[in-house]
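ok so for the tutorial part 2 we go from a plain amino acid sequence to predicted structure tokens. step 1 is just haveing the sequence, like this:
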Amino acid sequence: MFRPKIPTMPTPTGHVSPPVVVEPTTIVPAAQTPPPAPTAPVPARPTVQLTPGTALALVGGGTAVALVVGAVLVSMLLAVAITGASVAVCAVVLRSLLASETKRR
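step 2 — the prediction. this is what the tokens look like for a chain of 105 residues:
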């Protein structure tokens, strides 16, 4: 009852081809070629030179990004605070309505 029944593999139907015999092939080594002449090493990355103008632009861009990210985070915090305050006010109003209803009975 608790033993699983293992399904049997169904026998293939239709046209069945006989197995193909694969014969190994011989590997012929290629003719040896001389190694290429050494060349001067090329630097992996080009050298970046910062001029005063590009440094100022980078500082200005970084400052702008920091200000935008800060404004977004502050606005999200403010939205959460306002939502929390409104939920608290609703809870107080509902509590007072329910308490006054029970006092009337």
